[in-house]
Amino acid sequence: MSEILLETRNLTREFPFGKKDTVHAVTDVSLQIRAGETLALVGESGCGKSTLGRMMIRMLRPTSGEVFFRGTEITSLNAGAFRPLRRQMQMIFQDPYASLDPRMSVRSIIAEPLRTWKLCENRQAETERVQELMAAVGVPAEMINRYPHQLSGGQRQRVGIARAIAADPALIVCDEPVSALDVSVQNQILNLLRRLQKERNLTYLFISHDLSVVRHISDRVAVMFLGKVCETGETETVCGDPRHPYTRFLLDAAPVPDPHRRRSGERLLQGEMPSPVNVPSGCRFHTRCPFATEECAKTDPPMRMIGGRGVACHHPEKAGTCGR
Amino acid sequence: MEQKTLEISHLSVSFSSWRGTFTPVNDVSLEVRAGEIVGLVGESGCGKSMTARAVMGLIRAPGKVTGGRITLCGKDLLGLSEKEMSRLRGAELSMVFQDPMTSLNPVVPVGRQVEETILLHRQVSREEARKQAAEIFEEVGIPEAEKRIRCYPHELSGGLRQRVMIAMAMVCRPRLLIADEPTTALDVIVEAQILQLMRRMRDQGTSILFISHNLGAVAQLCDYACVMYAGQIVEQAEICTLFDHPAHPYTRGLLGAVASLHRRGETLDTIRGSVPALNRLPAGCSFAPRCDLCDERCMRETPAMTSAGAGHPVRCFHAGEEAPV
Ligand SMILES: Nc1ncnc2c1ncn2[C@@H]1O[C@H](COP(=O)(O)OP(=O)(O)OP(=O)(O)O)[C@@H](O)[C@H]1O
Ligand SMILES: Nc1ncnc2c1ncn2[C@@H]1O[C@H](COP(=O)(O)OP(=O)(O)OP(=O)(O)O)[C@@H](O)[C@H]1O
Ligand SMILES: [Mg+2]
Ligand SMILES: [Mg+2]
Fold first, then answer.
1. Chain A to chain B, count of Cβ pairs less than 8 Å apart?
2. Which of A186, A258, A268 lies at the smallest CB-CB distance from B192?
3. Which residue, judged by its Cα, is nearest atom 29 of ligand 1?
4. Does A297 contact B at CB distance below 8 Å?
5. How many domains does one find in chain B?
6. Taking CB atoms and an 8 Å cutoff, what residues of chain B touch A249?
7. Interface contact flag, B258 A152, Cβ < 8 Å
8. DSSP A316
């Protein structure tokens, strides 16, 4: 097995809310990512995926907990000591339009990290490197002087990827990189991400709420509910035979592109996500869980190894019977 | 004869400016029968929303309906004055827009906005309107409705905002609801709940034109679907026929791309190239440059609608042919 590239221990982030309340965005998350693999982070909108991803690459300070990158704890490093590691970590965003500066040309967007890290001797070398990167992500060479608004959504996402790989990082946090794209473009970008991963030995944290995308791209998956990881393990183990009822509901909710296999309503998770300001007692899923017992309302289930994956549930044997 | 709620025939919408003319809706025909949910699918920019806006009478200059007919339960919509049209909108004909944040008033509580819609179309007291607003909130599944009615749009989650939009669109029990990508901004669980709600609305007698680029949602919800490419409908059929026997190479490409995601495998299927800009459409069939079946005729002539079977029109010279390997 390859080395552990990044590890979080008891990572927690809170935001103040109003005068006296607190948003519990991420609570006590401990995860490992191995070099060269893709770890997917899935869960409903607002469950804390982006907050966790940003803390992992020190774009956001945790309230408590630690992040180790190749064995070095990075949240406590001073800016000077962190700087060489900064280059190792990049991010790709959901909305390439909002993340690319509208006043910068494709050339300057991709060249920016090359300049920051002084990776090119002169302008000639820089131009060549930008052209190489454009070719690697499949943006036609003649678009080098265009601006973001003159590109299609797929092309913008490719430019964002070129910028992310420019300084040869080890880890890329991909925050819903294909959620805004049409399926044929989505597939092109997913193929591109996979090819780049092989060629450059990249490690991905891949954030998504689309489980069919996650099943395709990731080696391991962590399912989050309201700031906590509720199930984690090999993607096929977790998605093929989920043990947390919430994972089961997520899998069942995804619309199957087959009119002969219509899902009926009774397997639908009802109600809303509880507020991260007033987190339910005990297991935070208990207010929506069809199997909740008194114990679930009282004690928060610890993460346990069951059937080859970690699951935080008092009744993991029940997930298999969900809505069946 | 089955009753047609909506009938669009040979509709065209064009935009003219000094840069030239382009036609985001080009000879579009489709119908929604009573009690049906019809899907309109296609990739970003193909003209789905523009078709919907034409039905709602919301095309603004420099855009213009340049041809065709639109009827709602037999009534000709294009012949109506703006005043008559606005009386229809929200009452017999409603639309849920792609982005609820831009179509809700940010400074008015959501319950109040629904009340206003009721007062506009029905001769009822403020008191009665408030009661009906509370009822429809319950009906679309907004929990703690009495409390939520007093919230401003930004205080609600994306899923709840979309329910408010649906409540507002449904409160006068329209004949036709146009839902323009109502679930695109939502996560899978909320999406599944909204699809369920759409089915319930249909069961209560509202026909629905469901616009989406998500083939999964269309497969789960629709009775019939139309596939749009570069301003034209290229294929339409009953939902199972479309998924089992797609005849247009573009439809096949889309379905193949989705299916490959559900197979284990290294590389996903894609459609080569990209969607053409509407003001720079190729001569002949607009899909020709991306098509494996393309021949010399396809690059010269625009295909007309032909039949790939009963109730299964398709716009392709090579409909149903297998791609050469
Ligand atoms: N800067 C902030 N200030 C206050 N609250 C925040 C801030 N950033 C995030 N939150 C809150 O923290 C919670 C988690 O947000 P986050 O963006 O991490 O969720 P997410 O899983 O990425 O959701 P989505 O799928 O919608 O992107 C949410 O309730 C959000 O409102
Ligand atoms: N006000 C406008 N003036 C000029 N062109 C417009 C205007 N609104 C839209 N268009 C163009 O018309 C075409 C069709 O747009 P439309 O919004 O109908 O696409 P769509 O199929 O709904 O796409 P999406 O899935 O992105 O919502 C696009 O090429 C778009 O750029
Ligand atoms: Mg996010
Ligand atoms: Mg649209």
1. 115
2. A268
3. A46
4. no
5. 2
6. 189
7. no
8. G
DSSP β-ladder status, A38-42 and A220-225: parallel
pLDDT in tens, B50-73: 999 999 999 988 899 999 999 999
Number of domains composing chain A: 2
Does A95 reach chain B within 8 Å, measured CB to CB?
A: no
Least distant ligand from the CA of A52? 1
pLDDT at A324: 43
Together in a domain, B167 and B186: no
pLDDT of residue B1: 52
What CATH number did the domain enclosing B290 receive? 3.40.50.300
Q: How far is the centre of ligand 3, averaged over its atoms, from the C-alpha of A313 (Å)? A: 25
Give the pLDDT confidence score for residue A87 in this predicted structure. Answer: 93
- For residue B48 and ligand 2, the question of a CB distance below 6 A is answered with yes
Question: Is residue A266 classed exposed, middle or buried when 0-12, 13-18 and 19+ CB atoms within 10 A define those classes?
Answer: exposed
DSSP A231-290: EEEEHHHHHHS--SHHHHHHHHHSPPS-TTSPPPGGGSPPS-PPPSSSPPSSSTTTTT-T
For residue B46, report the distance from its CA to the centre of ligand 4, in Å.
Answer: 8
Residues A122 and A141 in one domain: yes
The model's pLDDT over B260-270, given as tens digits with 9 standing for 90+, comes to 998 877 799 99
Ligand 1 interacting residues, C-beta cut-off 6 A: A 15, 23, 25, 43, 45-51, 276
Number of Cβ within a 10 Å radius of residue A78: 7
Report ipTM for this prediction.
Answer: 0.87
**Per-residue pLDDT tens digits for A135-170:** 989 888 889 999 998 888 888 989 999 999 999 999
Following DSSP, what letter does each residue of B6-70 receive, concatenated?
A: EEEEEEEEEEEETTEEEEEEEEEEEEEETT-EEEEE--TTSSHHHHHHHHHT---TTEEEEEEEE
Q: What is the CATH number of the domain that holds A76?
A: 3.40.50.300
Record the pTM: 0.91
Last residue of a domain, one of B173, B199, B230: B173
Look at strands B207-212 and B176-180 and give their pairing.
parallel
| Structural domain ending residue among the three candidates B155, B173, B191 | B173
B84: domain range?
Answer: 4-92+174-314
Confidence of residue A63 (pLDDT cuts 50, 70, 90): very high
Q: Taking CB atoms and an 8 Å limit, are B191 and A187 in contact across chains?
A: no
pLDDT at A47 over 80: yes
pLDDT at B34 over 70: yes
